[in-house]
């Protein structure tokens, strides 16, 4: 009998201990409406008060570009999908690409990396050089390849997912990018700017719901300089996840194929920035791996080859602003209604932070976001806000997870919503409200 009591007592203590530990590590999801969340009101106040900086044109737009091979010389960890300790082959080289735009009163450096995202630690390092470079600001993104290298995240979970953090690697990337910006600044030349939007809905599918809307638009700019050299900038919503998770080959996925194919059109430089990939993936049509990479890249390149371009004015004013975002407690879910506690999230990763940028060159409005931003969210809530081109990119140097349509939050079992939404419900509405407010302010300028 005493033995039974001891077993029962031990079992009770075990249950109590596990229960206490559960509530130490986990908590219920905060599903209060936005209107009852203090961080939401702070963000709305911030965007309502924000001043758009207007930089009148003082010259014909001048542009220069550089690309830098950043393929590691050592077999380091890969970033994307699951932990992969080291790549084994190089299918295609990885690059950092830099474009400097100067209208005489503002100078911006657009930077895209053939990586999963733009590392926050790299953004921080680059920010310390802004005064030395005499630039107004950066506009950052990545191709979002899932077969790039890692070792660029200095958090506990980041090192598990993307390999042991290397300060030397980040310092090397910083040095290469800064040197390239300086060289480009010495080479800016007057350039004619052209813009196009190309429908390619057949190349993507909504990854959250089969019959839901897709944004399959290729948005592209072409720069033709006084010396006849040409550059292409483009974005697309197809998630670059064409290559098997088992692959140990470095690759920039289909954006690398686009760049290769555009050389045949006399385009010497192609910069790709991941678009609204939060709800879209590439339609495979029975293909996989590098066959799918090739077909997708070639299809987009062919569409660009046949595109009709709209020539922009020679002199273009630049408008710029950014809104630092406030977030509530992190809400990484373990079940539909339970989350990891904030202290654990912050210990494993880094506290949530981010910003939304508006960069307008003439009437072309670029919006950068700190997340996998959803094309479906754009279609339903932003697309018709203003009668000007709106180009939204993801991965601007901070990362807060997926921002998708709010209707999926409590219904979808997809990983993109269940595991990769780090901020909680209703943030699709919040991001759309902030972006729309910036766009309306821009459109109302004289």
Per-chain topology:
Layout: H1 2-25, E1 26-28, H2 38-49, E2 53-55, E3 62-69, E4 78-79, E5 89-90, E6 95-102, E7 107-113, H3 120-127, H4 130-133, E8 137-142, E9 148-149, H5 156-162, H6 167-185, E10 189-199, E11 204-206, E12 217-225, E13 230-236, E14 249-250, H7 254-262, E15 269-274, E16 280-282, H8 289-305, E17 310-311, E18 318-324, E19 338-340, H9 342-348, E20 355-361, E21 364-368, E22 372-373, H10 375-381, E23 390-393, E24 402-403, H11 415-418, H12 427-443
Parallel strand pairs: 5-14, 7-8, 13-15, 21-23, 22-24
Antiparallel strand pairs: 1-19, 2-18, 3-6, 3-10, 4-9, 6-7, 10-12, 10-17, 11-16, 12-13, 18-20, 20-21
What report would you give on this structure?
This protein is α+β, with helices and mostly antiparallel strands and 446 residues long. It has one domain (1-446). The protein contains twelve helices and 24 strands. It has helices at 2-25, 38-49, 120-127, 130-133, 156-162, 167-185, 254-262, 289-305, 342-348, 375-381, 415-418, 427-443, and strands at 26-28, 53-55, 62-69, 78-79, 89-90, 95-102, 107-113, 137-142, 148-149, 189-199, 204-206, 217-225, 230-236, 249-250, 269-274, 280-282, 310-311, 318-324, 338-340, 355-361, 364-368, 372-373, 390-393, 402-403. Strands 3, 6, 7, 8, 10, 12, 13, 15 and 17 form a nine-stranded mixed sheet that branches. A hairpin with a 4-residue loop joins strand 6 (95-102) and strand 7 (107-113).
């Amino acid at each position: 009998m005493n033995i039974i009591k001891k077993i029962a007592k031990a079992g009770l203590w075990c249950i109590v201990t596990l229960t206490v530990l559960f509530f130490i590590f986990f908590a219920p999801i905060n599903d209060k409406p936005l209107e009852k969340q203090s961080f939401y009101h702070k963000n709305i106040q911030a965007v309502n008060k924000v001043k758009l900086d207007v930089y009148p044109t003082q010259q014909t737009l001048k542009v220069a570009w550089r690309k830098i091979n950043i393929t590691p010389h050592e077999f380091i960890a890969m970033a994307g999908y699951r932990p992969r300790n080291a790549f084994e082959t190089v299918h295609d080289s990885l690059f950092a690409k830099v474009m400097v735009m100067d209208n005489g009163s503002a100078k911006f450096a657009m930077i895209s990396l053939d990586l999963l995202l733009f590392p926050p630690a790299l953004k921080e390092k680059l920010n310390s050089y802004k005064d030395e470079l005499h630039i107004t600001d950066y506009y950052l993104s990545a191709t979002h390849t899932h077969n790039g290298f890692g070792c660029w995240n200095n958090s506990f979970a980041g090192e598990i997912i993307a390999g042991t953090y290397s300060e030397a690697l980040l310092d090397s990337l910083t040095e290469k990018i800064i040197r390239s910006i300086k060289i480009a600044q010495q080479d800016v030349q007057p350039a004619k700017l052209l813009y196009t939007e190309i429908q390619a809905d057949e190349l993507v599918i909504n990854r959250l719901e089969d019959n839901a809307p897709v944004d399959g638009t290729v948005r592209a700019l072409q720069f033709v300089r006084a010396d006849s050299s040409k550059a292409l900038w483009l974005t697309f919503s197809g998630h670059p996840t064409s290559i098997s998770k088992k692959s140990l080959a470095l690759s920039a996925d289909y954006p690398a194929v686009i760049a290769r194919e555009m050389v045949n059109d006399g385009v010497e430089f192609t910069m790709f920035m991941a678009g609204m990939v939060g709800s879209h993936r590439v339609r495979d049509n029975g293909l996989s791996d590098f066959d799918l990479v090739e077909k997708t890249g070639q299809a987009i390149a062919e569409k660009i080859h046949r595109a009709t371009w709209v020539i922009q004015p020679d002199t273009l004013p630049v408008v710029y602003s950014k809104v630092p975002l406030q977030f509530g407690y992190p809400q990484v879910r373990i079940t539909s209604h339970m989350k990891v506690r904030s202290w654990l999230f912050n210990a494993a990763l880094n506290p949530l932070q981010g910003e939304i940028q508006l960069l307008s060159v003439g009437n072309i409005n670029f919006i950068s976001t700190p997340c996998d931003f959803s094309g479906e969210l754009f279609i339903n809530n932003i697309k018709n806000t203003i009668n000007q081109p709106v180009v939204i990119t993801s991965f601007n140097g901070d990362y807060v997870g997926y921002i998708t349509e709010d209707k999926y939050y409590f219904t979808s079992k997809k990983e993109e919503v269940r595991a990769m939404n780090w901020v909680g419900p209703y943030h699709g509405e919040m991001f759309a409200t902030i972006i729309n407010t910036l766009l309306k302010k821009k459109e109302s300028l004289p």
